[in-house]
Amino acid sequence: MSALNTITRVLGPEYTFDPSVGFDGMDPGDHPCIGCLSKRHIDSRLYCVVDKDPLVCVCCKHYNQKCGAIPDELLGAAQWYWNTACGYFDRCPLNVSAPATAQQMSDRTELWRVITALDSCGSAWANIKDWHVDPPEISDASAAALHRLQELASIRELVSIMVLQSAGMNSSVSEIRARMDAAQPAYVRDDTKVQALLRALRGLDDAENKSVSNEKRARSLRYDMPDRLVDRMTTAYLADAPGPKCAVHYVGTPSCLSTE
Q1: Of 101, 186, 188, 219, which is most buried with the most CB atoms under 10 A?
Q2: What domain of life does the UniProt record list for this protein's source (predicted)?
Q3: Does residue 78 surpass a pLDDT of 90?
């Protein structure tokens, strides 16, 4: 079962997607894939664009991984994070392509704080990506059996709600929605990873001014992607290549791996 209801409940009140704003570095109407979203913190030179295959971006092809769209329920948080991260990269003192109007961060402690906050967000997004595709995270036969029991109980409760509603149950829409949410399996209702993402996103806001323990110093934000990949992404971006037109991946979605 999908974890999207849990995502909406936790992130929805704070992050709303604005189509008129879009995503920095993307054509109007294009969205980065969820794989690039989870790697946004690694390198300012990341571009989520395609070259030959419209369904797989250059970055996902390089790492031989699925290229999946961001679910609508995550777009608000994804947009805020992506654009905030790009704003920090524009202010990096070693970014020669930064806008002239960008106010550079010269304090090395502030740079380290931003790196730490971006890394926390990247890790949280990677966990969300994996959890969304496979919420049960089944590790052995006993866990699989437990999850099957949870799903059967959930289905029985959802069917009961539908029968009662058809029979004229006098309940408001909000009450029915609350009962349906409560009927979801425990592994879907578990919002641990979504709460971790929410904390990481809040930590990124004004990160350079938030003191943390064991602070260090840094000369620059991260530029950790291989040059070969950066060259391919940059070439495609400068050729006005669009973003990928991939689908949202759920449990059981066929793999879209590349064969370079």
Answers
A1: 188
A2: Eukaryota
A3: yes
